[in-house]
Design goal:
Helices cover 22% and strands 42% of the residues. With 430 residues, it is α+β, with helices and mostly antiparallel strands. It folds into 4 domains: 51 residues, no CATH class; 92 residues, Nucleic acid-binding proteins (OB fold (Dihydrolipoamide Acetyltransferase, E2P)), CATH 2.40.50.140; 101 residues, OB fold (Dihydrolipoamide Acetyltransferase, E2P), CATH 2.40.50.140; 136 residues, Nucleic acid-binding proteins (OB fold (Dihydrolipoamide Acetyltransferase, E2P), Beta Barrel). The chain has a 5-stranded mixed barrel. The protein has a 5-stranded mixed beta barrel with strand order 9-11-12-14-13. Helix 1 crosses helix 2, helix 1 packs parallel to helix 3 and helix 2 packs across helix 3. The radius of gyration is 28 Å and the shape is globular. Bound molecules: zinc ion (ZN). The site of zinc ion has 7 residues, from loops. Zinc ion (ZN) binds next to loops.
Length: 430
């Protein structure tokens, strides 16, 4: 009996490789079981299920393609490529926590993004053949999917990665998952670190790169002789997500040109960024954002923190440390919306005091006299629907973008400038 059960599962596996995502494993298994229950022999049942779910017309074998030929919607692909980059992601799929891997795979024709739906032990630099992969569309290009039904095996070939015309980006438009990026910017900071990669000690140069549109963290895995304050053009870089913000990565395959140009520090990232860009761009470093406060989230106002782990606690109980004596704190969690997108801005005690023009002690007194609702009411009244400008690091996760606010101001309508503008308008029309 156990044998038959295993047979059923392996047949379902086999059948699944011939079918698209539209058909669930459960459907296939149920149908196959029905045929078997009626006494249909295994092999015939297999054929019947394949026919039933429309795989009869699908090509029997795999289609071997070069990466440049891969199109969104391609199935049963066989490709050989080199893993250029790979990183682990924790995602939620239909309410279930899963670990997947995203990265870039390249051959001599193209470098494509990929998603591996389980851990195949892939490492950067591995050359592998994928049998039965499929492609979907992502950001206007094909993305390879390495699924449970894909056979991954090492390939004994050397791959000269495709030389492609790099795509030019402004710093603010760099989002995680891009390859062959070209970007120009000023080295705002530079730090040399020693790290261990696969047992080897390597030097990495990190810091911030900026242009008038924004700033980004970079990681250079090669000594390009970078200097602070110089303007460089990097070609052949790629991007990934690092601690909730995009990161620019370049190694010895990239080229770094030192430009005889200056970008004044006061011209870097001085203008507010539309919030859809912040959200779609996967967060960012030191961004200026403007919008209206559309919600003050619960957990704003006077709160208590655990003295051991600093988590916000409720009724003197920390989820980690149990019963503790809470430390008072003040904060605001405000949803800021500019009509194109929304972020959650977290204002710490100092920022909250600055915004509200009151101290935490003022609010503790108010809470003792009139209850904590009085504090919440004041925050609501001052901020709700009010335009605000916040600056800080925008961190992206599956739930959205959270801004750790470093500076915040309420935007007051500039009455003098407005009347001047109206006067000028009148003069022009006269
Ligand atoms: Zn705690």
């Amino acid at each position: 009996m156990a044998d038959e059960k295993e047979d059923v599962d392996s047949i379902v596996d086999d059948v699944m490789t011939s079918l698209g995502d539209e058909v669930s494993r459960d459907q296939v298994k149920k149908k196959l079981q029905t045929f078997l229950d009626y006494g249909v022999p295994l092999d015939q049942a297999r054929q019947a299920v394949l026919k039933k779910f429309g795989a009869g017309s699908a090509p029997a074998g795999l289609t071997t393609k070069k990466l440049a030929e891969v199109q969104p919607g391609d199935r049963r692909l066989q490709v050989t490529g080199k893993i250029v980059a790979i990183e682990k992601w924790d995602v939620e799929v239909r309410g279930e926590q899963r670990t997947i891997f995203r990265g870039l795979i390249g051959d001599d024709t193209e470098v494509l993004p990929f998603t591996a739906w389980k851990d195949f032990g892939l490492q950067s630099g591995d050359v592998v053949t994928l049998k039965n992969a499929y492609a979907n569309e992502w950001s206007g290009q094909a993305r390879l999917n390495i699924s449970e039904w894909t056979e991954v095996s090492p390939a004994e070939v050397s791959i000269q990665l495709a030389e492609r015309t790099p795509q030019r980006f402004k710093v603010i438009d760099l989002r995680p998952g891009l390859s062959n990026v070209e970007v120009k910017g000023k080295v705002l900071s530079l730090e040399e670190r020693e790290v261990t990669v696969d047992g080897d000690s390597k030097k990495v140069y990190t810091g911030l790169l900026g242009d008038p549109s924004g700033k980004i963290q970079y990681n250079a895995w090669h000594d390009f002789g970078l200097q602070e304050n110089e303007v460089i053009q990097v070609s052949g870089a790629y991007t990934k997500s690092w601690r909730g913000t995009p990161q620019l990565v370049f190694d010895e395959r990239a080229t770094v040109k030192k430009l005889d140009e200056k970008i004044a520090t006061e011209d870097i990232a001085q203008r507010p960024v539309s919030l859809y860009k912040v959200v779609e761009g996967g967060g960012g470093v030191d961004i200026i954002m403007e919008g209206s406060v559309i919600e003050i989230q619960s957990g704003s106002g006077l709160i208590e923190r655990c003295p051991q782990c600093n988590r916000a606690i409720r009724d003197g109980i920390c989820v980690i440390d149990g019963e503790v004596t809470g430390q008072p704190d003040l904060r605001i969690k405000a949803v800021v919306d500019d009509g194109t997108g929304a972020v959650t801005a977290i204002l710490d005690r100092e920022m909250t005091e600055q915004m509200m023009e009151k101290t935490m002690e003022d609010y503790r007194r108010l809470a003792r006299e009139q209850g904590e609702e009085a504090v919440d009411r004041e925050i609501q009244q001052r901020l709700m629907a009010h335009p605000i400008r916040v600056t800080g690091n925008a961190l992206a996760d599956d739930y959205g973008v959270t801004v750790i606010v470093r500076d915040a101001t309420l935007i007051m309508p500039d009455i003098a400038a407005e009347s001047q503008r109206l006067l000028e308008e009148l003069e022009v029309t006269e």
